[in-house]
Specification:
Largest sheet: none
Helix content: 40-55%
Number of domains: 1
Strand content: under 5%
Shape: globular
Distance between the termini: 32 Å
Order of helices and strands: HHHHH
Number of helices: 5
């Protein structure tokens, strides 16, 4: 039941667009699109959009109301160095290691 409520909340927020700090692609993400890319049910055009979706989830605090997977993945990206503590993207690290993803 909780998952249903979360899905409805994300769906209602499709028009509230957000461009993450340190964006390179300029893609405006809705909460729904960012979570969809992270979950794998929305397509992304390149690795920049993938990491920017995760940055959006972190910067908007979406992970706090979602499954634990989201918070753990964000912490992994921070530990890896692709994201900074404030969930901005470290493009140098990301570009050097993008093959890992």
């Amino acid at each position: 039941m909780e998952t249903q409520k979360q899905a409805e909340a994300l769906s209602e927020n499709k028009n509230n667009l957000f461009i993450p700090e340190s964006s390179r692609s300029g893609t405006a993400f809705s909460d729904y699109l960012a979570v969809g890319i992270a979950e794998g049910f929305e397509d992304f055009t390149d690795n920049d959009q993938w990491i920017e979706a995760w940055a959006t989830i972190g910067q908007r605090g979406l992970y706090l109301g979602l499954q634990g997977f989201f918070g753990r993945m964000l912490m992994s990206l921070v530990e890896f160095g692709a994201l900074n503590q404030d969930f901005t993207i470290d493009w140098d690290v990301f570009d050097d290691q993008v093959a890992v993803f």
